[in-house]
Write a structure and sequence with these properties.
QueA-like, alpha/beta
Length: 360
């Protein structure tokens, strides 16, 4: 796979690799997504808008420059100003995270001056770069300060600095995500309008999508962090209706899988704190629309709950062989849960696509 360096959500040539229930693989245009759905299916997406969660400033005790990347919260409540954050030293997104300098030594009580904002370190969270922060001041002033001073979190493979409009999905609502729920970049209003005539419904959840990488192996091993979510009663009812008629629940992104599986599809608020991986028994979600992910990434581990063994290995080989684009502005995968007679299968070898060559 190759990195998608252009921050364009819906390029005309975006591709879709489909892994069917029997493990067979199909290459398609992403615009043909609806062709792989059937009457009774329910598509569920994360409607969280992306916060400008990268804040540059100064570590007041030392005077050293820092970058704070907000990475988690305990709730979606507007007046909850406590955050988990990853702190870097001097530099910005142009330097790969794994090469970023460490921050000055952080200790409880340290104050961080982040443009118009001041935050205090409430404690270390098991790593020198991961801290609990509490912002000072009135709630309205804090959110206004984040909006004015913050920038979207981004990574060095992108060719330019991204703007907020680059990272908000078309269905963005409550600003809650720390990085975009980027599987939702595949959606547009034309696609959503095409669902209803086919008997496919659409619903949303809200989950505060966390960060995808810290550049530190020890911290990356802890990803994903806990993520608060809210599932509306209307979404829970849509899930029940779809299941009642034999429809499938299609989650748009790993965040939706976490929320629906944690809540078992029920309405309410909660914090998704579980890992979804090969040993996980999925109880709600039947398929996932996701970006392309390499083995070893936390997102790829989640795919192992849908397809195991040879199926994912062949899917990865197909992605590599056809030079699919990866990362948040890349191509997509639609992976169905491998079930046949109630048994997960990983021994089906059929592949319905001819090998493709990478452009030279």
């Amino acid at each position: 796979m190759i990195a998608a360096v252009h921050p364009v959500q819906r390029p005309a040539d975006a591709r879709l690799l489909v892994v069917s229930e029997d493990g067979s693989i199909t290459h398609a245009a992403r615009s043909s997504l609806v062709d792989f759905l059937r009457p009774g299916d329910l598509v569920v997406a994360n409607d969280a808008a992306t916060l400008p969660a990268s804040l540059h400033g100064i570590h007041r005790p030392s005077g050293d420059p820092i970058e704070v990347r907000l990475a988690g919260r305990g709730s979606l409540a507007r007046d909850d100003l406590r955050f988990a954050a990853v702190v870097f030293g001097r530099g910005d997104w142009r330097t790969p995270t794994e090469h970023r300098s460490a921050p000055p030594a952080l200790a409880p009580g340290d104050r961080l001056v982040l443009g118009p904002l001041v935050a205090s370190v409430a404690g270390l969270l098991g790593h020198p770069r991961l801290v609990a922060l509490t912002f000072e001041g009135p709630v309205d002033d804090v959110w206004a300060g984040i909006a004015r001073h913050g920038r979207p979190i981004q990574y060095a493979y992108l060719e330019r600095a991204v703007e907020m409009w680059d990272v908000w999905t078309p269905i963005a609502a409550l600003p809650a995500a720390f990085e975009p729920p980027s599987a939702g970049f595949a959606l547009d209003w034309k696609l959503l309008a095409a669902l209803r005539p086919r008997g496919v419904r659409f619903a949303t959840v809200t989950l505060a999508a966390g960060i995808s990488s810290t550049g530190d192996p020890a911290l990356d091993a802890r990803l994903p962090f806990d993520e608060p979510y809210r599932i509306a009663a209307s979404t829970a009812a849509a899930i029940r209706r779809s299941k009642a008629v034999g429809g499938r629940i299609i989650a748009v992104g790993t965040t939706v899988v976490r929320a629906l599986e944690h809540a078992l599809g029920r309405a309410g608020i909660g914090v998704a704190d579980q890992r979804i991986e090969a040993a996980t028994k999925l109880r709600v979600v039947d398929a996932i629309l996701s970006g392309t992910h390499a083995p070893g990434e936390s997102h790829h581990r989640l795919l192992q709950a849908f397809q195991r063994g040879d199926a994912l290995a062949r899917a990865n080989a197909a992605l590599e062989g056809a030079c699919y684009r990866t990362h948040e502005f890349g191509d997509s995968m639609l992976v169905f849960r491998a079930i046949m007679d109630g048994i997960c299968r990983d021994d089906l070898k059929e592949e319905r696509c001819a090998p493709l060559s990478c452009p030279t």
